[in-house]
Amino acid sequence: MPRPRQPLLTRERIIECAIGIIDAEGLDALSTRRLATELNVQAPSLYNHFATKEEILDGVADALFEQVDLSMLGREPWPEALREWARGYRRVLVAHPNIVPIVARGPGRRPAQLRVDDAVYGALVDAGWPPAYATRIGALMRYLVTGSALGSFALGFPDDPSLYGESYPHLTDAHRLRKHQAEVDEGAFELGLSTIIAGLEKTFATLRRPGSRRSV
Prior knowledge:
The protein is mainly alpha-helical. The protein has two domains: 11-51, Orthogonal Bundle (Arc Repressor Mutant, subunit A); 70-207, Tetracycline Repressor, domain 2, CATH 1.10.357.10. It contains eight helices and no strands. It has helices at residues 11-25, 32-39, 53-65, 78-94, 100-103, 111-126, 131-150, 181-207. The longest helix is centred in the last third of the chain and has 27 residues, at 181-207.
């Protein structure tokens, strides 16, 4: 009987496999040789789709940005839209924390990440934010979202009560943080997001007052 045909090698298959490796073992585990082995192909065949490993990493990052919902931008008032978009953006990254360092570099030439940045910037400018402020807000939101998705604050504290004791008198309950990871980590993100948006609303109101100096 004829042997089953090998599934066609595509950019999508390569990216999907790369994401699986990075999610399971981290960025250092990814190589073209490892990808070829996992895909049961010869390494040179990967170069028909990606010229370098960096291009593969760009494809991995862009695959995540394809999942970021932008539908609220320009549809809802900017504070609500920014809040909803940031939450969705973070959900995508939290599911793939090992990929966050790639995302944090910035969009470069990645089409999907550029579309996200364009949509956020455009929605803010259309809402009345001066361009310079819209740029800073985009940067600020990236810092908040990528920073909160990069790792868990709660999981950084071992659950060994004896570790803290008298040496760290203010951390006597730190061993409990792991059991409340979602509450701690998500609560910190929500607090930061609410604080930022509240501050931005005050700044926006000030900028719109007659005679105020607006950055361009």
